[in-house]
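Structure catalogue
Derive tokens from sequence
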Amino acid sequence: MGNIALFGAGNTGREVVKRLRLSGVEPVAFIDDTPAKQGTTIDGLRVYGRQQAVEALGADVTVLVTVLNPKLTFPRATVLLAEAGLKAESFMLLSWRFPEAFAGLCNIMPPEAVLRQKESILECDALWADDLSRATFAQQVAWRLSLDFAQLPEQRLHDIYFPEDLDLDLGADIVFIDAGAHDGDTLLQFLAHTRDRFGQVICIEPDPDNHARLEQRIADQRLGDRVSAINCGLGAESGIVSFNATGDMSAAFGEGGTISMPVKTLAEVMPSGHPAYVKFDIEGAEWDALQGSANHVSQNDPKLAVSVYHLPEDLWRLPLLMARLLPDKRLYLRAHGVDGTDVICYAV
């Protein structure tokens, strides 16, 4: 592959280094715009600024962008690197070159693996309730086959989980389950959307630091006992599992985590007999959480907002599951984020 440097020395970049080494590839350096990181060594790699990297590594080095951040999209990163005379590719290409080593790191699989899912993709394509959903689905599939970032729409993070073009019809007695509540950012959006007219909010957040910030935000809002926060994850069954507590978007359950964390089922946290709106952003555990409480979901008929971008197959297998569990709901797809992130399927 030639000399490879990684643009972005954060959690994603460090994970890419680990998986490259397992694949027998040794990167030559990190490149990062954070002044405090420049001149240091991270995971055995020297960290350079962009111009420093050209002088130290030469312009023929291949730079893999290892940033997933709405403030720095891949197209913008390529422009910044080109200004310094560096050519860039997305680290997601590694999922094509080393599919086993890079499985689960992003929502990309080799094109031939996507094509093997043709029947499911076509079945999912027939589910959508409007033209924008159909166009969004086609864009997302095309991007997974090409990694052409020009296929992706502009971001619309301002209305994620509460899209302005959908009638969610959340009544004054609605129970909102915020699964993957982070530090309470979605809670604030919910309060603004409902104008504080709601029945109950149950926030689920496994990361301890995020949970502490979430509880502080709830206290600051003075919402009384209508809003609660549970420090746990959601899954197919209750138990204790390993969790990698990073405090950011890379926090997730998996082997070799930093702490042990309780997991509950959706049936345990979502009360029966009440109108509910459930948001899922749980880093690839969406399938387990829905399938594990399938009967509870079907019996209580909640509205859903489900992240379908964490794992490659989620784009089609999660809407198909939602359609099976909630046959009377209409399904919509909206791409809110950048670089293939924050793609949400709504059942309303």
User: Anything to note?
Assistant: The domain at 4-106 is CATH 3.40.50.720 (Rossmann fold). The chain has a mean pLDDT of 94. Residues 131-146 form the longest helix (16 residues). DSSP finds 13 helices and 17 strands in the chain.
